[in-house]
Amino acid sequence: MYNLILVDDNPRDRKGIELIVKDAGFKVTASYANGSACLNALPDQECDILLSDVMMPVMNGIELAEAVSNRFPHIKVLFASAYHEFDFAKSALEVHAHDYILKPIVKDELVKALERVAGILDKEKEERSKQHQLREQLDKALPSYREQLFRELLFGSYQDGEDLRQYIDLLGITVPEQGCIRVVTLRVDDSDRDRTLEEQMLGAISIRNLIRTLPESIRPLELVQQGKHMFSAVYASEEGDVIDKVVDFTSAVSANLGLPAAFGVSGPGDSLEQLSRLYLQSITAMNTTFFNKKQTFVLYEELGEEGSTDDQTGDLQRLYRDTKQLLLYGSAQERREFLNRHIHAMGHRGDEQAVRHFASTLISIAEWVTGEVGPASASSQKAADLEVRNRIATVSHAGELLELLETFLDGCSERLTGGDQDVSGILTDKMKALMKENFHEKLSVNDVAASINYSSVHANNLFRKASGESIFEYLTKLRMEKAKELLAFSDSKIYRVAEESGYTNKSHFCLKFKDYTGMTPQEYKRSLEEKRSSKG
Q: Domain HTH araC/xylS-type: where (predicted)?
């Protein structure tokens, strides 16, 4: 049953119309003698249909309909007008009214008009019900839409850049305008467990539940699952807060997981559009070969600008580093694969000039490395190198060039590694000296590698081969041993120890210290104090 308000300055008309309306199944909630009285009372009345005369004192029906349309758009207006007022009333129908009838009122015509307006209300009610149901479904699906949006942003597949702000608002995502964004990627290692696929899937659900039930203070902005063993968490906050939250997050997850896990943390970003870059940084940090299983938490900044290499780049500095590594420590097979990648890539593009230029550049670099690291070349050897250069200009196909360069590089490698000089030891000692002198500063693995003109990966391979540990492990050991030394002082402050050990963030330092010693800095200080007390 719909509620109706009647407006007419003729009391007898109002009474007659009211009887017809009630017989037709509508409820008359109020009646008024003019538009002004009705409009003032409407906020306190229940009204679906307004049946109004046109010509009335104080405020006529047209003025009333216009005001109702602006202030109460859900109310449907029905005009009742005399024949001589019809043209006047009709002019307002298209704008303010939904139907009209002529006076004197004929019962059947009024009932039909009311039924037409009721039909409009029925359709609107049905549409509102559908929209409400859809809204409920959307509300239930919002978490999935949120995760999907972040998945696309992380993987770089989101295309509608102009609509991103609308999605963010719709999904209720709050990102500080001047804040910091980081991505944490977690990989769980359950390789030692013989589990069925169902058990693995149940395990992934338990990890999601664990993360989603963390205290709100350390819960990520969004969690994206990638398979059964890997998850990425997006954090957004102020710079200091986000690192603290990430450290607390990794500690809480590790404590409750019951499985070994590795955490890679990206560098900082300032917008969601940068998530794909941050995600790759977190993957690099997590997957880097610089860390053994004792290192469960890796900041991308600790790797420097390079966390991985791409041997297909034409960058001269990278080519120098790769060539140096291959000559000193690469196998013949690795050198062959290296040449194949470069020359075949250029050959497929049909760039013969680029191939010859690459070959000439490679020879120059090999000669440079040989002169820099190895013993002085005899004049006969220099002549042989010149002969190789001359032959580059005359080779007719890529296969011949590959064979020529392969033989040349193998010869250079044999000269370098066959001498008495321990190149690996010399370069490792140089890196160790740099770390001992600068470990308390913001020193990354890439900084150490750059000191010997090597890429991060190649320098790390050399260092591990010579010392049995990675660059990062050695750097961490220097910092932790210094921290232990400083903590032995009874008046030492944790934040000061962190800074003097090369860590700008106290929480990060505490996590690293516990990984290294099995105790927090506070616990370590306490253990030293107890030992001193027992001796005293």
A: 429-527
